[in-house]
Design goal:
Blueprint lengths: L2 E4 L3 H12 L4 E4 L16 E3 L6 H10 L4 E4 L6 H10 L6 E4 L6 H11 L6 E11 L8 H17 L4 E8 L9 E8 L2 E8 L1 E13 L3 E5 L4 E5 L2 E3 L2 E3 L5 E4 L6 H15 L7 H17 L1
Parallel strand pairs: 1-2, 1-3, 3-4, 4-5, 6-9
Antiparallel strand pairs: 6-10, 7-8, 8-9, 10-11, 11-12, 12-15, 13-14
Amino acid sequence: MHMWLLGAGNWGSKLLAGLKKCTVPVNVLDPCKGQGIGDITDTAPVIVATPEWQHHEQTVALLKRGHDVYVEKPLAETCEQISDIEACLQPGQLLMVGHLFIHHPHMAEIKAIIDSGAIGDLVHLSSRRLNWGRYQTKTDPLLSLGVHDISIILELTGKQPRVDQAQAWNYSNNIKPDRVYFSGVCGEVSFDCDVSWHWPVTTRHTIILGTAGQILWDQGAGTITVSGNRIQDRRAVADTSPRIINYNNSLSPLELELKHWIDCLNTRQEPKTGLLDAKAVAMVIDRVKKLI
């Protein structure tokens, strides 16, 4: 089996390296060199790693040609575009979305900790994805970064988020916002997210607050910190010896995600992150954009 990789930019190069580590032959199409879907000569699976504003049109075209398709997040920019994609998906055809952190081994560990009751009942999730990035005019941090946090919230709560508040800031006189903040609830669990690519301190973490403890998932450091920090008898109780779990898998999260895609292609099973996940994320994005 071989694959086509559409897109040879920053993320495309990472996908290429991951596929090579998984020993999958890859034909790379570089749009910067004038290469595109028309250069594909068979119906082998295609990985789309182009800018997000191109995903909708390219995915529709590839599905109509009969390809199984893996699309880097987000699948599309709006729910309406995802409906177009859904209409093109044929029976038995595989479509996977690159919601990286759903395939991250730490996600399974965090869910196991929560299910064990170690931090009590969930009460709040808080995500921060801030860094100093490139000046963008065709996309925004909500689509570029916030998709990660929304997918994490969906996975941990199992509920469709309801967005109650949203705000955007433009620090650079850009066409698109430089920072987006939004909050709401998932069932009985509240949440808030803050995403920006014009922030001097790189922060990539999710904080999970429970009635009996807390979890800090620091994705930049590759650690989970589990503590018994809690409110008890109307006072804050600090855990002086929190437990730290380091990332110890020989494969990177991206390589594990690609391995899952390869396994799905071989077994014809539905990918863990597919159309329904993309649709759930897009519903949140649509709501946030209406509020900002």
